[in-house]
Design brief:
The structure is a single chain. The chain has a four-stranded mixed β-sheet, covered by helices on one side. A three-stranded antiparallel β-sheet has the order 1-2-5. It is about 40% helix and about 35% strand. The chain has about 200 residues and is of the alpha+beta class. The chain has helices at about 1-45, 135-155, 160-180, and strands at about 50-65, 75-90, 95-100, 105-110, 115-130, 185-190, 190. The protein starts with a helix and ends in a 12-residue tail after the last strand.
């Protein structure tokens, strides 16, 4: 009788251990599948978030050079009209993130800075130059450098960057919705994102 009871106890113990191992394997499999799904979804939204704009600039360029002292000057000037297409973008493929399966947490460490691209088209009008002070490559390079700096200030003062940041937050909402629906946690620089509004703390 004792042998029978001992056998039943051993059998029950082995069955429990086997069932526990099976449950652990199933939980681990689900965890790995969820992790792979999150990884894939983050990859899917890793696209450029772009805001486009158009700017115009009119620039008067003047240059004078003294010849044989201040009494004689050689001058050149030009009226430059610039039309520029501008894009502000975030390359989400450069997001630095980590998936922690143990705590079911997606940790966003950093967001890439905005990429501002200027594509100006220069048109030159009323170009005049004295014989001893002709236009050369240095003049055109100086004009382009000055105009691009001016356009960049306009872009920074416009709503383009803010619009791009809003588009960025809209894309990141997909991260939160996905992780929240799967019972995972989303953090940004160790700060837990508790709601969609909480994404406003994310700044590149």
């Amino acid at each position: 009788m004792k042998k029978i009871l001992l056998g039943l106890v051993i059998g029950a113990t082995l069955l429990f251990a086997f069932q526990t191992c099976q449950d652990d394997k199933e939980d681990k499999s689900i965890l790995e599948e969820n992790s792979m799904l999150i990884q894939q979804e983050i990859t899917n939204v890793s696209k450029l978030v772009v805001t486009e704009g158009h700017f115009a600039e009119v620039y008067n360029y003047k240059d004078s050079k003294e010849l044989f002292g201040p009494l004689l000057r050689a001058e050149k000037k030009a009226l430059v009209v610039v039309n520029a297409d501008v894009t502000v973008a975030y390359d989400l493929s450069k997001i630095d993130f980590e998936i922690d399966e143990a705590t079911k947490t997606v940790k966003i460490k950093s967001i890439p800075d905005a990429e501002i691209n200027l594509n100006p088209d220069f048109e030159y009008y009323d170009v005049t130059a004295d014989y001893l002070n002709q236009f050369d490559a240095a003049d055109y390079n100086k004009i382009k450098k000055t105009v691009k700096a001016s356009l960049m200030k306009k872009v920074e003062a416009s709503a383009l960057r803010t619009n791009a940041e809003n588009r960025l937050i809209s894309e990141l909402q997909k991260f939160y919705i996905l992780t929240n629906s799967m019972g995972w946690r989303l953090t940004y620089q160790e700060q837990t994102i508790e709601s969609l509004d909480g994404l406003q703390v994310i700044k590149p």
